[in-house]
Design brief:
Elements lengths: L1 E9 L5 H17 L3 E17 L2 E13 L4 H10 L3 E8 L4
Antiparallel strand pairs: 1-3, 1-4, 2-3
Amino acid sequence: MKTYELMVIVKPNIDSEETDKVLDKISENISELGGKVVNTEKTGRKKLAYEVKGFRDGFFATIKLELEPSQVAKFTRQLSLNEAVLRTMFLELAKA
């Protein structure tokens, strides 16, 4: 398994309880694909540099996870289908 970092921006028009449900669903998707969530860091609501899908701000969270490289395409597809997610950045972490 490789280690990855996912930064996700969730739409700001949903409440914090719904935001937690979105992050839980992402964690659940990782587990279903045989991966493991190492940690989740909620950064909070921040202003965006430019408008994304009609929004000027969003709720930021960073998830460090382990996942088989063969499952990455499926996982990124699931993320793109999640309507509560504005934008994602998915990176492979280098081994130290």
